[in-house]
């Protein structure tokens, strides 16, 4: 099996390194020879030094490429009958990467990728084209780096039916929350520290607004339940607005705040959401700290499963790509792309019943607690606890824990508060499910 | 693919139930039809009622079978050209089961089994015969029930190199230790409770002497490192001698006692042991309670992985067997039986360097602490802490935590104590590694 790599950055370079290091052992495992034939990369010298790779492997012989030259070499490799499988580690979901993925499949070559944005946002077409051309798409590396969640669902849970999939799937967010929790940092300091430690990118937008986590959940939901959902349907909430006082409220009810991806099947409907949740200290996910990822599945027969591991990193993510290569080589067979028929309908989590913690920031005048609790009661929501009200110079802030209800009910209560007294709420209350 | 099941008890019956329930969905996943054709079972009526299965599926038409009749039907099924795969859920490692497994492979049929004792103690021959006859052995269910650790190693960690595998692999022992820890029960009460709750068998010997956990570790070591080791080489220690005061000593050093399976590769040598260990509260395994199992792997590239799930149970274990059936049907291919070449040598854990906690029970006279600590020092072992000495009517008991050293050093120190004062030690001191 002859392989080419497009994009030799953090992940692609790791793949080249492992392929080179493991050599014969991989051939034994794949029951055939795996050859890395060509790498297309704009700046080969940097990549060559960083990953200790011979310049001769790079298209163009080692000189830096213009985008036009790179495009030419990419087309050459895709047209090369001797190449059987292409690793796409360019990243992003723009037209260029999308078209490249389609061309690879149409040329009858297997595609292995770590590109979660591409598969989550534009994967439907790619999977269809792969199906038409009878090629495999390996994407173990696209969801939670080194954690083998994709193969676990595709190959190990085939004798079962998945009822729910949830977890901590964005290392940057979890690192920030852990620092805020354990070191009492505020959000901006924790983000800076994450960037300095290599746990967050210079532009952390996709991580802190919940989009990256959503990409992973979209892929897992397709795989586990067989349906395609969009980022808009999920309408994720990230960690970027979490404040120190939110962490304090979490502590008061024996919880940790975690950015949770959540998908659950009930009566043939799939509920899903990505948002910060109050995770009870008894729940295993509350103890998953730093950049670590964790995925929790509940199956009909096998019960609860948890997988924990490195969610990112060069060699960590690359090891998943290499496993996909070995799998495709070994079984020389089209991987099935999901394990369930898609007879399910999607319901956004606004209709899902959770207990909630609602954090209200209000002007500091008497009568607010009465107004808020009355409006909540008017929506038939039972109140579990009302926190101590913190009075600062500028505002008052307090939290209310509810018994199980829907987000829609809470939104109606908030609408009523706004209607009764348009001047009291400062910003939108934070509404976080409590996860037991 | 036509299937037969030998033995329709807890696990075999669960398999028949899932095959019947899932039907078309399994066929879709397997990309072919899976038919359950025949079940051989001594008491079909009981099995039929327990798992809601038609009596017509059973060999003999539903009447109870003598052993001779069962043997006849087993031979018939093995000789039947229409049967492609046999699920062995009879259990045990006696000659009858061993010969049956060999016959299945020699007849060119795939074998799927949950039988850890058989594979751990007599698996070498079975794997060889399977190899010769080009058939697959599926044994996902043999190690930690529903946890997909076998396929994870065989199919997902192929782009990596496993450095260590450890974990909690016996639910009965872990349930007993959890009850002793959390409910302050003594061993016998905890065992009784485990039996009443269905977490321990009427004869719990294999569980409480560490043999069952050892069987699983032997299989994982073969799979991860490619070497065959014996139960004698492991010389496991079970939980049966753990006392309440041991739990107290664990609490003093912020640990939980857990029965740990431990295998680690260092410089081409494999160290392995199964014994109760002092697991630091920071270590994830310390929080795995009740009958739950957890496996922890550390890989060269991917780093630390943890898998948690149900280690036993009828449908839980059966779901792993069904996944093996689907996998064999889907890829119609011989599964590779280990992922590493067997160039490693085995070293028993006596040579492995751990920090240890040693619990001494002695006659209650002055001078003992001096004698014990001096003897330990004479073996070049540094002492970390000496616990408060508990004086009861009959004896004194105290613990000593060491810095990292080998079991051999500790045994030499104990020999010296015995030589100096043959009358002071009451029984063998308990020597437990401290796991960070």
Summed over residues and divided by their number, the pLDDT of chain A gives a mean of: 94
Number of strands of chain A: 18
Strand content of chain A: 15-25%
Counted by DSSP, the helix tally of chain A is 15
Name the CATH homologous superfamily of the largest domain in chain A: Dihydrodipicolinate Reductase, domain 2
The largest sheet of chain A, given as strand count, sense and whether it forms a barrel, is: 11 strands, mixed
Judging from the principal axes of the Cα atoms, what is the shape of chain A? elongated
Largest protein-protein interface: A-B, 56 and 56 residues
Instruction: Look at the helices and sheets of chain A and give the structural class.
Output: alpha/beta
Any idea what the CATH architecture of the largest domain in chain A is? 2-Layer Sandwich
What's the CATH class label of the largest domain in chain A? Alpha Beta
Oligomer: homodimer
Radius of gyration of chain A: 24 Å
Number of folding domains of chain A?
3
- The CATH topology annotation of the largest domain in chain A reads as Dihydrodipicolinate Reductase, domain 2
Helical amount of chain A = 40-55%
User: Terminal Cα separation of chain A, in Å?
Assistant: 47 Å
Unreliable runs of chain A, pLDDT <50, ≥5 residues?
none
What would a concise description of this structure say?
Chain A contains 15 helices and 18 strands. Chain A is α/β, with parallel strands linked by helices.
């Amino acid at each position: 099996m002859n392989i080419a790599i497009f994009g030799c950055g953090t992940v692609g370079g790791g793949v080249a390194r492992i392929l080179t290091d493991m050599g014969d052992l991989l051939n034994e495992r794949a029951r055939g020879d795996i050859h890395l034939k060509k790498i297309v990369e704009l700046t080969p010298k940097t990549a060559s030094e960083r990953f200790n790779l011979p310049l001769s492997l790079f298209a163009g012989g080692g000189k830096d490429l213009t985008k036009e030259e790179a495009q030419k070499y990419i087309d050459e490799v895709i047209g090369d009958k001797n190449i059987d499988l292409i690793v796409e580690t360019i990243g992003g979901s723009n037209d260029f990467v999308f078209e490249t993925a389609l061309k690879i499949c149409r040329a009858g070559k297997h595609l292995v990728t770590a590109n979660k944005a591409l598969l989550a946002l534009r994967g439907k077409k790619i999977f269809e084209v792969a199906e038409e051309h009878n090629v495999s798409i390996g994407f173990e590396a696209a969801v939670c780096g080194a954690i083998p969640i994709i193969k676990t669902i595709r190959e190990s849970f085939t004798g079962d039916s998945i009822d729910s999939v949830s977890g901590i799937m964005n290392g940057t967010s979890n690192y920030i929350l852990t620092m805020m929790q354990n070191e009492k940092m505020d959000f901006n300091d924790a983000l800076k520290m994450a960037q300095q430690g290599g746990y967050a990118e210079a532009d952390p937008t996709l991580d802190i607004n919940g989009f990256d986590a959503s990409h992973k959940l979209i892929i897992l939901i397709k795989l586990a339940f067989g349906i395609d959902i969009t980022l808009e349907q999920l309408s994720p909430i990230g960690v970027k607005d979490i404040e120190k006082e939110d962490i304090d409220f979490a502590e008061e009810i024996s919880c940790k705040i975690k950015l949770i991806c959540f998908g659950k099947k009930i009566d043939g409907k799939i509920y899903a959401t990505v948002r910060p949740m109050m995770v009870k200290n008894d729940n295993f996910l509350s103890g998953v700290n730093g950049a670590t990822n964790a995925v929790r599945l509940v199956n009909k027969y096998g019960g609860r499963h948890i997988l924990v591991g490195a969610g990112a990193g060069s060699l960590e993510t690359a090891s998943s790509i290499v496993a996909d290569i070995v799998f495709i080589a070994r079984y020389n067979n089209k991987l099935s792309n999901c394990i369930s028929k898609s007879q399910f309908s999607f319901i956004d989590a606004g209709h899902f019943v959770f207990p909630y913690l609602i954090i209200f920031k209000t002007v500091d005048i008497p009568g607010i607690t009465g107004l808020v609790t009355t409006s909540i009661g008017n929506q038939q929501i039972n109140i579990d606890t009302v926190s101590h009200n913190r009075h600062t110079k500028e505002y008052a802030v307090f939290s209310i824990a509810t018994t199980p209800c829907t987000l829609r009910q809470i939104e109606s209560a908030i609408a009523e508060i706004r209607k009764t007294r348009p001047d009291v709420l400062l910003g939108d209350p934070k509404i976080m499910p409590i996860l037991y």
